[in-house]
Structures are given as structure tokens and as C-alpha cells.
Amino acid sequence: IGVRPNILRLFLTEPKLWLKVFLGPCTPYQYRLTGPGQWKGARQAIHTQWDRVAQPFRTRVVPEDSSYSGVVLLWLLFGSAMVICSLLWRMLG
User: Structure pTM?
Assistant: First the structure.
């Protein structure tokens, strides 16, 4: 029918779109890029498809108090685990 996207042409003319078509999920928007039933919004839909996937999971706004608080907590947990492991190693070894 002539609706399958030409991957080589996309690679040469629109590398960002090619990357999303080639490595992204197979969606009906890809078959609306060319041929009968061509849709002008298909390119934009392909570029924003992951935004529509992630949107339902953003149910609330979480305030960011500080950018390093999660990293500090992770290092504290890691350090505590290392101390506990070393104490157990000395007791059992």
C-alpha cells in the first residue's frame, strides 16, 4: 500500500525521527508518515509518544527540597551496610 516508513530516507533526512522510529516502540503513527491516510501530526506524535506514556504516572507534584538528599541517604545506607557486614565478618570469621 505504501505506508511503511522508509527507514533509509528517514535516516538521511530526519535523523532524530529515524532514531525514534527505529529504536522506539512500533506505533500506528509510523504508518501515517507517508502514503494514503498521511497525517501531518504523525511526526509530532512520534516525538512525544513517551510523554504520553509517562503522563499517567505523574499524579502529584513532589517538592524537591534539595538535590543531594537522596544521594546522602543512599551513601548512609551503603555505609551502614558495610559497617554491619564488617562487624559480622569479624564475629563469624
Answer: 0.58
